[in-house]
Each structure stands twice: as C-alpha cells, then as structure tokens.
Amino acid sequence: MRFSVVAALCLLSLSAQVKPKTAFDKPTLETYVRRLLLVDPRVQITVDDPKPASITGLKEVDVHMSFQGRSQDEVFYASPDGKQVLYGKVFDIAASPFKADLDKIHTDLSPSLGAPGAPLTIVLYSDFQCPACKEEAKTIRENVAKDYPTQVRVCFKDFPLEQIHPWAKPGAIAGRCVYRQTPAAFWDYYDWAYEHQTDITPENLKDKVLEFAKTKNLDTLQLGRCMDTKATEAEVAKSQAEGAALKIDQTPTLFINGRRIPGSIPWQNLKQLIDAELEFAKTANAADEKCCEVKIPSALNK
C-alpha cells in the first residue's frame, strides 16, 4: 500500500513537470520555425516574449533570424493558450493593403524622376554593384519616362548589400555626394555606375568616379573631399535602415504605390502592374469625387 502511494505521487510529480508544448515556450517555437521554414542550423534564432496582437484575442510573437551579418524577421500569431499559431500578414480592411509598408517609406530628399504630383510613385531600393539592379535600372530608364512622362515618379533609395558587394556602400556614398552637389547629375551617375559596374573595384572607385565627374563638369575637388570624409554616409545609412525596417532581403526591390515587387522584373510585366495601379488610382479618385452625390439617373445630371 505504501509503495502504491509513493508511485502515484511520483507519477503526479512527473506529469506536473511535463508541460504541454506551446508557442510561448521559446525553444519549442524555435524548433517549430526551423522545421517550418527549413532554416539552416547555422542561423541564430531569437524568439521575443509574446505581446498583444492587432487582432483581438491573439498574441504576437516576433522571431529574429541572423547569419553572417544578414537578418530576417518573422511574425507569428498565437492563440491565447499558445497551442495554435498563425503565420502570415494582417490587413486592416479599411486601409490600403500596403499601408504598413507605405508608413515606413520616406521619399523626401531622395533622388527622383518624373512629375512630383504624379498619381503613381515607384520607390526603388537598389545596389550599384548588383547585376540584377543593373538590368532593372536599364528597364526603368529606357521605358518609364518615355511611356509615362507625367503619370509616374521614380524615387531612388540606397540599399547596398555590404556583406556580398564590397564597393556598393562607397558607391552609394559617392552617388549621394554627386546628388548633394548637383541633384540632376545623380541620374547620370546612376547610368554610369551601372554601365561600368564590372570595371569598378573598391580600390579604383574614387578614381573612376572623379573621371566621370570631369565629363559632367562637376567640382572634382569638392566631390573627392565628400567621398574621403564619407560626408553622405548618414544619408545612405538612413536609407539602409528604412530598407531593413521594410524587411527587404534582395535587390532590386520596388514599391509601386506601396505594392512590393522583389527582384528584377521584365518591362512587359512591370508595365502591366503600372497600368493596373494607375487604373485603380483613377477609379479611386472618381469614387471620391462622387462620394457625396445622391442624384437620380437623368440625362440632365452629369
């Protein structure tokens, strides 16, 4: 009898120690995320404490992944008991589906092309050493201004991938130095940098940029000093931080009126997206203009 009581107490003690698996147990969620997303074992994963989510009744758990200077964040939503998780994006049906990204994008003081009041804005996050960005740059420069002279504005944002492109950030700093001196010359630099991408190295970047500057009648002494002192590094860093907040993980990445387009995209596909967004903008504006009318259908009512 005594043995049975002791055994029962031991079993109760063990069962109390075995807690059910939930998303609020950090090692459990880390293991689950590694399997779900096939995360490389070398990647470090950090799981935050749960916090109230924007969806009533759910908890939000942020997961951060890092590897060799690169980082990626993911958001999971958990039921109150943590036994079920939801992986995806949350949208406010009363707002633009791109509001979360639009709130993070700031185009003031960014190099831009096109009419400032254009109904559509393309924000391009790019890297001067990226081969895919070179193709995208050519596509945008050859087609956007020609096909959409007043309807589309293009804004450039620096997002150099320093981990894999050694002269990308110095090249971005140089581009900002050109822009600071003569804003219109930035786009000449943009074209030149991509055209000569394979000829540029970290060692010859400054000499190459100064050669370019002479052809555009820029002040080479001022430009060289700007590059040497990294006078525009804070501007580049700000753009990088903005891209990181947007969780950009590849270049180029475009935002067309907030719609995210990762990677290089052929002109025919990009044109379809632009046309669709312009049509939506036109429809939305027309609806706003008619929002307060209660006229009955009539040939006299316009």
Would you give an account of this structure?
This protein is of the alpha+beta class. The chain has 2 domains: 16-87, Nuclear Transport Factor 2, Chain: A (Roll); 99-279, 3-Layer(aba) Sandwich (Glutaredoxin), CATH 3.40.30.10. It is 43% helix and 17% strand. The chain has helices at residues 2-17, 26-37, 99-102, 131-147, 168-181, 186-195, 205-215, 220-228, 233-245, 267-289; strands at 44-47, 51-52, 59-67, 70-78, 85-87, 112-113, 120-126, 152-158, 253-256, 259-262. Strand 9 (253-256) and strand 10 (259-262) form a beta hairpin. Helix 5 (168-181) packs across helix 8. The protein is globular. The model has no long low-confidence stretch (mean pLDDT 89).
Brief sketch in words of this structure:
The protein is an alpha+beta fold. The protein is built from ten helices and ten strands.
Biggest β-sheet strands, sense, barrel: 5 strands, antiparallel
CATH topology of the largest domain: Glutaredoxin
Cα-based radius of gyration, to the nearest Å: 26 Å
- The count of β-strands is 10
**What is the straight-line distance between the termini?**
95 Å
Overall mean pLDDT: 89
Helix run count: 10
Summarize the helix and strand pattern as letters. Answer: HHEEEEEHEEHEHHHHHEEH
